[in-house]
UniProtKB/TrEMBL annotation, chains A, B:
The lineage of its organism: Bacteria, Pseudomonadati, Pseudomonadota, Alphaproteobacteria, Sphingomonadales. This is Peptidylprolyl isomerase. InterPro entries: Cyclophilin-like_dom_sf, Cyclophilin-type_PPIase_dom. It comes from Sphingomonas donggukensis. Keywords: Isomerase, Signal. Residues 49-230 form the PPIase cyclophilin-type domain. Residues 1-16 form the signal peptide.
Length: 287, 287
């Protein structure tokens, strides 16, 4: 039943750039460079790479910490020590003993929310966690309750593990969402980035069994991190380059409409709306 | 930073039955048996087991097909042939050539929706795909737009692959959602079950690379299915037994409220609502 499956596959595929182009397709000029100092590359000892775009504009203190941690090579030799099904993969220092590099703020300001919802395009409908959700001009998904704004906990978003509130986390221990968006964490924890390449290197890891919480019980299960580097700290020729789609033009608004109303012939009933985590702003590796 | 991660873990854990019990905790009598003929056990050749509860009451023609396919041992020796990150794992006959067993309806009625929203408890807020979502008396999540009702495409839900609309699928090729709920598929395809054990046997599989659609390009990548059996076709002593939580009492309504408003000390800001896919009706293996 390969016929039976291909349409299902097509249904999920990003709007295809098949001829003739659709009015919502990106033009080459719609792709904007992600700054090299927002690109953090984790290379696992197994050779897989997990690349995170840092939300430097929204969470500057956390991102300053993360850059300092990367530059100190603090993550080199650390591990992914927790993988909980339909929730998160988490990495950093499982021993809790490694001192933070100089200059890293152990408990930064929360940076969970900010006052202004600076979306340049929005979705049609509210969701149970936000009255409005949309897109920043630099390619981030954002949500609001009318009083404050934040980055929602979608698949692939990267957050900072912390102790009980009101404690905050340094950024040394990070997690990525690998299942249905745990939006109840919105406004309760700092989202500092998004995995833009290699999320499957985390989402396919064996689930841990510790405490019913996905902890690897035997340190032999830990998945070692070989290195973590900012692209901006690599020689220019070695930097991987990524792009986000321009969210400010009419084509992008048509793209939103197409996400909210999937098209025939596979779909017979358009939803009339979309959840921000099913309509994440497009990113890609630079061609 | 183990302290830093444990609270995050606790945050996701189902309400704990720690002493003293919470008013929303299930009592032993709250756990109801899932009928054996609704339990379909796929055993992979690697020894992992994926157990599906069939939505027999909502999708009777599809489920009759699926039971007939299982009884004919049609899936034995077939494969998981597609795994697309943040979308679905799909299994059945990758060759498209295997004849269906006698009595199986090749194109059943759609059974995508039904007229009555028979929820006995509901969530507080709408979502972008439904005006209301809630729980049936026998432990299924259901959604409605006020005119019709359906089972939403949440993590772990099992659907029937089909060709382009208006074609429907026999049930020989099934998929399970392994990422953020693709709710745009709601009302466009039949959900016939829910994985109640072993979803990680699918969600941890390597992602396929075919067509950008998660197809395994080399048949050597296929993950073989050893057997597929209904629990009701096994000797009584060998049947695994599962239970769903009673959704009809006040304790369950308190459970919903607790899912919508996660508690301190980890959470400082309750969401005031939840997405049905973040509040799936509890199921468990019988103790």
């Amino acid at each position: 039943m390969l016929n039976a499956l291909l349409p299902l596959l097509l249904a999920q595929a990003a709007p295809a750039a098949a001829p003739p182009p659709k009015p919502y397709d990106a033009t080459p000029a719609d792709w904007k460079a992600i700054p090299d100092d927002e690109v953090l590359i984790f290379t696992l000892a197994n050779g897989r790479r997990v690349v995170v775009r840092l939300a430097a504009r929204y969470t500057p203190v956390h991102v300053a910490n993360i850059r300092a941690i990367a530059r100190a090579k603090w993550w080199d030799g650390e591990t992914v020590y927790r993988v909980q099904d339909n929730y998160v993969a988490q990495w950093g220092d499982a021993t809790e003993k490694k001192p933070l590099p100089p200059g890293v703020v152990a408990n930064p300001p929360a940076e969970y929310v900010w006052p202004r919802f600076d979306a340049v395009a929005t979705l049609t409908k509210p969701d149970p966690y936000a009255t409005k959700a949309g897109y920043s001009r630099d390619g981030w998904p954002i949500a609001t309750n009318g009083r404050e704004a934040w980055i929602p906990h979608c698949y692939g978003m990267v957050g900072v593990a912390r102790d009980l509130a009101p404690s905050t986390g340094s950024g040394g221990d990070l997690y990525a969402n690998i299942g249905h968006a745990p939006r109840h964490l919105d406004r309760n924890i700092a989202i500092v980035g998004r995995v833009i390449e290699g999320i499957d290197a985390l989402s396919t890891l064996p689930r841990g069994t510790g405490g019913g919480l996905g902890l690897y019980e035997d340190p032999k299960q830990y998945v070692p991190i070989a290195t973590a580097r900012l692209a901006s700290d690599l020689p220019a020729a070695e930097r991987p380059r990524y792009q986000y789609r321009d969210t400010t033009n009419a084509r992008f608004k048509l793209w939103i409409a197409a996400r909210e109303n999937r098209e025939p012939p596979f779909f017979t009933v358009p939803a009339g709306g979309a959840d921000i985590c099913n309509a994440l702003p497009p990113v890609r590796k630079a061609p």
